[in-house]
Design a protein that fits this description.
alpha+beta; five-stranded mixed sheet; 13 helices; elongated
Length: 360
């Protein structure tokens, strides 16, 4: 059934054109929308709804049934005493019938896309339903997931209104926090740049409307049956980004780096690695000053002079801190191999904390 707001907007538009009063009720006589000064006895509506008539003139009113798949769904009523009342009646009925078809088609496509993303369809069903719904099974596509923190409905409407090409793209929701955007790629030669631009546009669009968001996208697939793979990649990118790249608002599956590897490690292997490196301790046991020094040292590509300058400390003070860290951990961050080991350890600890805190 159409929403009350959609019906109200429709008959408001018809009244603006015809200047005639129009009312829409369900088959039980409940008023769904009204435009103009019109009031009808509920008994009259009930009697008409129960009859076999499609259209009826009853005293000062004109009544017309709107069907959905041969079943009457609405009664449209206009005031027969007003000019253009018959035109308003038929216009309202025509518009509602077409809206029913359009909304049903959108629902069918939305249902298909959700099941496609979640791998709930057999391959033969995917192709059969795609053909019936007029969806090109061989088009190149990528899946974007927009994390919106309880703003899923508003974000979905914005994407549909601003960025969705209804003939080719699909916007849907799998849960209350995320909007899924299935985008058909038009220029495969520049696909990576197009997806990056689109993701940035989505983040900016939502930000301009006061909605915080993060956008992740999967790789490009060349067959509709592979869309679920791109969706899974986008979900993984979102999770990996949440753990390791908190400062990024747009995350591509193809650019996850070492975070992708760490994310797929068994948690028991992570514990073994941290125990081996730190002998029962963790990087979190280090004091804040030491941790700040380590992060700044990595940020400056192990450059002692630049790190000491940015920390506003003497070079010898930085060397002293690094020597102290080496004594406590056995790792000298000035040595590339040790620096890599420590960097990976920090990321592994972040991953372990995420897994433990999220209840996995």
């Amino acid at each position: 059934m159409l929403t009350g707001q959609v019906i109200q907007n429709t008959i408001d538009g018809i009244r603006a054109i015809t200047h005639a009063s129009v009312m829409v009720c369900d088959m039980k006589g409940k008023i769904l929308s009204r435009a103009g000064d019109i009031a009808v006895n509920s008994g009259l509506i009930a009697a008409f709804a129960a009859s076999d008539a499609i259209e009826q003139a009853s005293g000062e009113f004109l009544l017309y049934k709107v069907f959905d798949d041969r079943e009457p769904e609405y009664v449209v009523i206009s005031d027969a005493s007003e000019t253009n009342s018959h035109m308003a009646l038929r216009l309202a009925a025509f518009q509602l019938e077409n809206l029913n078809v359009a909304y049903k088609e959108r629902f069918d496509k939305d249902n298909f896309i959700k099941n496609l993303l979640l791998d709930n369809l057999l391959i033969i069903d995917i192709y059969n339903r795609a053909r019936k719904l007029g969806i090109d099974a061989g088009a190149e596509r990528s899946v974007l997931i927009v994390e919106t923190k309880d703003e899923e409905t508003a974000a979905g409407e914005l994407l549909r209104g601003e960025l969705e090409n209804e003939a080719k793209d699909f916007v849907t929701s799998i849960d209350e926090d995320n909007v899924v955007f299935v985008r058909e790629i038009e220029d495969s030669k520049d696909a990576a740049s197009e997806l990056k631009r689109l993701s940035e546009d989505i983040h900016k669009l939502l930000s301009d409307h006061g909605i915080e968001s993060r956008v992740a996208y999967g790789s490009i697939v060349r067959d509709i049956k592979e869309v679920s793979r791109s969706y899974k990649e986008a979900r993984l990118a979102l999770d990996v980004g949440r753990i390791f790249y908190e400062d990024k608002d747009v995350i591509a599956y193809s650019n996850l780096g070492i975070g992708r590897l760490i994310y797929q490690l068994p948690i028991n292997l992570c514990h073994m690695f941290i125990t081996e490196i730190f002998h029962g301790r963790t990087p979190e046991d280090l004091d804040e000053e030491t941790l700040t020094t380590i992060y700044k040292f990595f940020e400056n590509n192990l450059n002692v002079s630049e790190t000491s300058r940015q920390l506003f400390i003497h070079r010898n003070t930085l060397v002293y801190r690094l020597d102290k860290l080496q004594k406590s951990t056995g790792l000298d961050l000035r040595v590339f191999d040790d620096a890599i080991t420590f960097k990976i350890a920090l990321m592994v600890v972040k991953y372990m904390d995420y897994i433990e805190n999220s209840g996995y």
